Amino acid sequence: MPTIKLTKRSVDSIRTDGKRAFWYDSDLKGFGLKVEPSGVMTWIVEYRAGAGGRGASKKRLTLGKFGALTPEQARELAKATLAKVLAGADPAALKVEAKTAKTVSELCDLYLSEAEQGNVISRRGVQKKASTLATDRGRISRHIKPLLGANRARDVTRSDIERFLRDVADGKTATDIKTGKHGRAIVTGGKGTATRTVRLLGGIFSYAVRVGIRNDNPTHGVAKYADKASARFLNGGELQKLGAALREGETVGCPWNIAADKPLSKHLPKVGSDRRSIIGTHAAAAIRLLIFTGCRLREVLHLEWRHVDMERGLLNLADSKTGPKTVVLGAPALEVLAGVPRIAGCPFVIAGERLGKPRSDLKRPWAITMRAAGLDGLRIHDLRHTFASHGAAAGMGLTIVGRLLGHADVKTTSRYSHFDADPLRRAANVVGSSLEAAMEQRGASEIIVPIKRGK
Questions:
Q1: Whose CA is closest to 79, among 31, 130, 124?
Q2: What is the DSSP letter of 69?
Q3: Does the structural domain 100-210 have CATH classification 1.10.10.10?
Q4: Which pLDDT score is estimated for 156?
Q5: Among the CATH numbers 3.30.230.10, 3.30.70.100, 3.40.50.1820, 3.30.160.390, which is that of 3-95?
Q6: CB–CB of 31/75 below 8 Å?
Q7: Which of 208, 187, 47 is nearest to 114 (CA)?
């Protein structure tokens, strides 16, 4: 049983000798790689369940194929599996249970159970966030279970998925239900919802393949509707309106009583005849940080002072949508942070109504600001799009813009490619000038290419 540090480099160096072989990790006991005579490699984890110690039978659990899972992802899954064993669970028995799942509804429940324990890796290669899981639960309970829940998981076909896609798009699962004492959930369906729910089904059936319920994924090859994510980008004039509205609505100091730990909205100074037009120093700072950093809303609202490195101009976020993230701050963002009042006993940059908790949202100050600026329909997330679009238009290139935004996949940044035309045009002019110079037997520097500027 050869033992090595299982990394991408070491696995690439493994050669098959025509026999099945097992390679075990030198750092994480039980974590290994099964190598078939054909060269197919599969990540595994071995353990002894129960309190029998070495007297208990050894069990082996398949984690996934090499290539589908990176060494780092497989290692994290192995750690999670071994943690379950220490807690008294038997993951192999869970896999057997999963194989006996007879319905899509049962499969969804198993998938959510595993995802909640961090054993499901998202398309970005990270564990699913609590907010993502909440969305998944809603789509499962409101769309997947009503339409496919009673079907046997192993019998679902591509045609079933295509019919499901059409039914959700046509509003077959639309409903208006009461949630809690005063809440309502209005489910409308539509093409966008249908596309995103089929993508979730793809992840669920990928899990089914991994644990042995199915041999294939019936969502593969299903033509989905175009997911037209609406995005708005503020131009220079609109940014001026936004800035003016922030300055007018901002009040000096903190709009709540820290000693009493309660909001003091009734004591806010009036602007004109409506004190509700006051948005507060911290809320205004939050909006400015969203503009100047391109961060997501929760990244700003949950930002703590310990994450801020003013000397090096960085935000060191312990967690984000794509995992740990470092945000490079420009001078405007640093100026905003330098001007934010620090509240004694409050760890958060954007202080909320309670010292120990972050601010939950910016709905009220955002509505006030949008009304004052006359920017109806603008969403907070559009500030992130604005940051990206202005960066692309300035000729930074999509790679740099993607790194500033913390995109895990370059495809996510590609939506801003139409703003990046000027660098491409300049490059085309340089290449074309060089070729024309060679053809005409003259120096490229002699050629002057007029460039039309947009109005």
A1: 31
A2: B
A3: no
A4: 95
A5: 3.30.160.390
A6: yes
A7: 208
Closest CA to 239 of 24, 383, 85: 383
Give the pLDDT means over successive 10-residue stretches in the chain (455 positions).
90 89 94 93 90 73 91 94 88 75 89 83 65 89 95 94 95 74 66 93 92 90 76 83 85 39 37 53 91 88 92 83 78 91 89 83 89 88 81 64 62 55 59 68 49 45
Q: Which two tokens stand for residue 382?
A: 């559009």
Strand-pair partners of 182 = none
Which tens digits make up the pLDDT trace of 21-60? 999 999 999 999 999 998 899 999 999 876 656 667 889 9
**What class is the 236-416 domain?**
mainly alpha
Buried (b) or exposed (e) across 380-408, using 16+ Cβ within 10 A? Answer: bebbbbbbbbbbbbeebebeebbebbbbb
- pTM of the predicted structure, to 2 decimals: 0.52
Selection from 191, 170, 187 nearest residue 179 by Cα:
187
What are residue 41's DSSP bridge partners? Answer: 35
Domain definitions of the chain by residue range: 3-95, 100-210, 236-416, 420-455
